[in-house]
């Protein structure tokens, strides 16, 4: 996906990057109405009453008439390398009657872990509009106040707005595999002939401008651990957690309250999260109580966030008899900024020649889009490991299988495979000076380290030839 040079084409002066970066994928298209959804298709003169205006104002999404609410998703993704990221989804927006101006807004971010971890790139009419991948929740906050998306009135006889959306969950993100999220897109349209461009672009022209998203005291809620319940549980019991967050030390939950059926089966619990020493653990933000056949019960928010639940949290209700199932396990989400991690011992430190890297993930953190080429050098090696254009937020993977290695231990002249990186790579930016990075582990290399004259290249992940992850720096 290559950014183009169409910046500034909309009369509002707002880039398509701001307006569509929050869309995570196209699933079902839902329709609803009313102020509660924030969806409007109306003449500006009747906007306050939330009705359709005169003059046949309307839009379609993928050829289907919509009253302004588009449900995007559910979108479920797994962590992956940049090279194996999912293919983009595509949808089209058209005017169905008269030329219209169109504004788009989303709901404020709700703090779910996938929304904070998921990144997307959006291409509109062949132009990359996000400048790389951006966290979904980050752009949802911007989009809640609405942006205008038409390029000087959307004509029903003209070309539709074609949007490609590519989701990507980086390999170094929290483990949210199997989860899903969706996005509510709200549209507002008005006839171009009823309102002048001056009015539309005035400070009060954006119908969503007054929306304010509340600040959250939990910037990112991530899965932390899971506790299994036995046949009976009582106040004072301490249950160990199966840790779900890489790098987090052992934790437990201490039961502070229970709710039972007449037969003593526990259907609800209250508890405190604590570490192995008995001290309070990180702040909990969600609790999912599993019971019965429901594999994906709704999470219960812990609000305000705290190491202890605010009272009893219950298992789901059996729809057949109206009674609650017994608690089988609970899964806890915590605020990532309250977690202390120490590497967990599950990664490999790259500072010993006994370690070899099979792959390396590198992120680009520069302000300008660049054309780069990465080659293997020194030690009788060669081979192009990556070539392409990157923008801020992009990442790419270097694979040892692309290294050509000479000699008896190489993969030429019948020497057998040598699918490892090293001893060095060189990154050439727009054909200019090269940036060397030593990758044989004879020198320290860790996730979080940066290279380049402006620190524009960052190590964001990697694996050893034993399929173990590369450790981070002390700050990562």
TrEMBL record:
PROSITE patterns: TAT. Residues 366-454 form the DUF7467 domain. The chain crosses the membrane at residues 19-42. Pfam families: DUF7467. The keyword Ligase does not apply. It comes from Halorubrum tropicale. InterPro entries: DUF7467, TAT_signal. Keywords: Membrane, Transmembrane, Transmembrane helix. It comes from the Archaea. This is DUF7467 domain-containing protein.
């Amino acid at each position: 996906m290559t950014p183009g040079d169409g910046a500034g084409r909309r009369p509002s002066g707002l880039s398509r990057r701001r307006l569509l970066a929050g869309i995570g994928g196209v699933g079902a298209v839902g329709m609803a109405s009313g102020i509660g959804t924030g969806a409007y298709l109306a003449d500006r003169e009747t906007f306050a009453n939330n009705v359709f205006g005169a003059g046949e104002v309307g839009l379609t999404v993928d050829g289907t008439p919509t009253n302004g609410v588009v449900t995007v998703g559910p979108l479920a993704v797994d962590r992956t390398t940049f090279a194996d990221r999912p293919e983009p989804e595509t949808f089209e927006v058209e005017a169905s009657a008269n030329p219209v101006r169109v504004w788009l807004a989303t709901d404020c971010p709700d703090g779910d872990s996938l929304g904070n971890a998921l990144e997307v790139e959006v291409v509109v009419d062949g132009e990359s509009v996000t400048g790389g991948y951006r966290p979904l929740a980050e752009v949802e906050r911007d989009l809640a106040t609405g942006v205008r998306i038409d390029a000087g009135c959307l004509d029903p006889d003209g070309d539709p707005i074609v949007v490609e959306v590519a989701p990507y969950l980086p390999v170094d993100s929290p483990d949210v595999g199997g989860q899903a999220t969706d996005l509510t897109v709200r549209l507002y349209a008005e006839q171009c002939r009823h309102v002048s461009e001056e009015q539309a672009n005035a400070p009060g022209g954006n119908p969503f401008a007054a929306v304010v998203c509340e600040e959250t005291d939990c910037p990112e809620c991530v899965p932390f651990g899971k506790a299994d319940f036995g046949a009976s549980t009582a106040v004072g019991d301490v249950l160990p957690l199966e840790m779900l967050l890489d790098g987090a030390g052992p934790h437990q939950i201490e039961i502070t309250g229970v709710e039972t059926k007449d037969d003593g089966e526990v259907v609800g619990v209250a508890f405190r999260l604590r570490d192995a020493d008995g001290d309070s653990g990180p702040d909990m933000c969600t609790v999912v109580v599993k019971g019965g056949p429901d594999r994906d019960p709704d999470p219960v928010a812990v609000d305000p966030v705290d190491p202890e639940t605010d009272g009893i949290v219950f298992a789901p209700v059996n729809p057949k008899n109206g009674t609650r199932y017994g608690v089988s396990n609970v899964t806890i989400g915590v605020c990532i900024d309250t977690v202390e991690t120490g590497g967990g011992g599950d990664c490999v430190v790259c500072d010993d020649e006994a370690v070899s890297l099979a792959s390396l993930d590198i992120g680009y953190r520069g302000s300008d889009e660049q054309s780069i080429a990465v080659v293997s050098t020194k030690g009788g090696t060669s081979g192009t490991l990556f070539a392409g254009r990157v923008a801020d937020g992009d990442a790419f993977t270097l694979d040892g299988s692309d290294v050509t290695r000479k000699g008896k231990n190489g993969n030429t002249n019948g020497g057998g495979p040598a699918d490892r990186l090293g001893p060095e790579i060189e990154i050439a930016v727009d054909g200019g000076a090269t940036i060397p990075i030593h990758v044989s582990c004879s020198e320290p290399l860790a996730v979080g380290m940066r290279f380049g004259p402006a620190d524009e290249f960052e190590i964001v992940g990697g694996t050893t030839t034993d399929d173990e992850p590369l450790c981070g720096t002390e700050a990562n």
